[in-house]
C-alpha cells in the first residue's frame, strides 16, 4: 500500500505559505455525508487551484476528488475532511473519513460500467494511496500535476486492498443469524453487478434531482452485509474444491465458476431491516428510472429483480422471527411471460420480415430477453404457434437447468457489454412446447440493422433427429 507523502496522516489546517520561492495555497473543509458534498469538494479544489494559478491541473483533479469523495459518502457514512495542499509541481488532496473499512478494487469485467473508480483515480493521478488510521478511519490521497509517465500496474497495485474489517476494528454487535437457503450464487453476483451500476447512476441522478425515494447510504449499508456474505461463501466453496457441474458441449461459462444452491448463514445487525427495505425502495426507483431512459444502465431482467427481492425479504422476515424460505429457482412460468410487468418496456421498432420469411431456424429477441420474431420452420420444430410464442421471454425455450446461467450471462452482457457467446458456434438443448429437449447447433449474433436498441438473432438447427 502506498504511504502518505506528508509527515502526518491527520488532517490539519493549512494556510498560505512560501516554499522554494513559490506561493502555495492550502485549505481544509469538512463536509457532511450527503451527495451534494461531492460538488462542494470539486468547488473547493477549483477555488484553490484558481487562486494558486494551477488551473491546468483542474480536470484530472476534479475527476479524482469526485470519485474519492463520492466513495466516502456512499460507503463511510461519516463526516468527510478534505485537505487541498498546492505545491510547486503538484497538488496533494487528502480525503479523510471515520470508517475503518478500506476501499476495494472490484473484480468486474473490462467493459463494466461500475467498479472501476479506483482504477480511474490511479490512471489520472501522479500517485495515490490509502492510509489506515485504525479505529479513527482512513485517509485516501492523491496527487495531480504535470502529466507523468504512468506505470498503470504499479498505480493499480496501490488499490489492491480487501474490503474487510481490520483485525483491530469492531464487528457488528447485536446480530441475528439469517439463513438464505439455496442462494443462486451465479445469479446473485450478476445481480450485484447490476445493483452497483444502478447505484452509481443514481448518484449522478440524485445530485440533480430531488428524489426522496432514494436512500443511497442505507442502501449501501444493506448491500454491504448481503453481498459480502455471498462472496465469502463462494470463495470458501471454491477453496473447498466443490466439483463443477458439467455444461453442454460448447457452452461457455458466462462467469467465473461459482457453486450453485448455497445455503448461507450470515450474521446481520439486528436493526438492519429498515436499511434492507431502503435498498429495495432505492433499487426499485432505479429500475423505474432505467425503464424511462433517465439512466444509462438498462433495466434488470425479471430474475435479477426477483432474486434481490427474495434475499431482502428473507432478511426482513427472519429479523422479525419468521422462518427461512428457499429460493424457488428460475424454472417458474412467470419468468417466461414477465417482461417488467410493473412498468412494461416498450417493444423495439424492428422489421422482422427476414425472420418471419426465413426457411432456416431463427429466433429474434430484444434486450428485455423478449422474443420478437421466430421463423416458421423453427416454430414448427419446437411445437409452438408463432403468435403465442412472440412476446414471451427467451427462457421459454431454455431448459430449466440452464436458465440461471443464461440470465446471469445476459444480465452481465447488459451491464458490461461482455459477449462470450456472440458469434461462437454452440451445441445446446432447446426446450420444446411439450417439455421435451432437443439438442441443436446455435449461432447467436447481434442484428446490425438500424434499430435504437439491440436485437439478437439465434440461428438454430437440430443436431439430433427430432423424430
Explain what the structure shows.
This protein is an alpha+beta fold. The chain has three domains: 17-157, Heat Shock Protein 90 (2-Layer Sandwich); 175-329, no CATH class; 353-462, 2-Layer Sandwich (Beta-Lactamase), CATH 3.30.450.20. 37% of the residues lie in helices and 20% in strands. The chain has 13 helices and 14 strands. It has helices spanning 36-51, 58-75, 117-124, 152-157, 185-208, 216-239, 273-292, 302-319, 333-337, 353-356, 376-382, 386-389, 400-416, and strands at residues 17-19, 22-24, 26-31, 80-87, 90-97, 127-132, 138-145, 175-183, 262-269, 362-366, 371-374, 426-431, 437-446, 455-462. It has a five-stranded antiparallel sheet, covered by helices on one side. It has a five-stranded antiparallel sheet with strand order 11-10-14-13-12, covered by helices on one side. It has a two-stranded antiparallel sheet with strand order 1-2. Helix 5 (185-208) crosses helix 7 (273-292), helix 5 crosses helix 8 and helix 6 crosses helix 7. The longest helix has 24 residues, at 185-208. The radius of gyration is 25 Å and the shape is globular. 40% of the residues are buried.
Which secondary structure elements does this structure contain, and how are they paired or packed?
Blueprint: E1 17-19, E2 22-24, E3 26-31, H1 36-51, H2 58-75, E4 80-87, E5 90-97, H3 117-124, E6 127-132, E7 138-145, H4 152-157, E8 175-183, H5 185-208, H6 216-239, E9 262-269, H7 273-292, H8 302-319, H9 333-337, H10 353-356, E10 362-366, E11 371-374, H11 376-382, H12 386-389, H13 400-416, E12 426-431, E13 437-446, E14 455-462
Antiparallel strand pairs: 1-2, 3-4, 4-5, 5-7, 6-7, 8-9, 10-11, 10-14, 12-13, 13-14
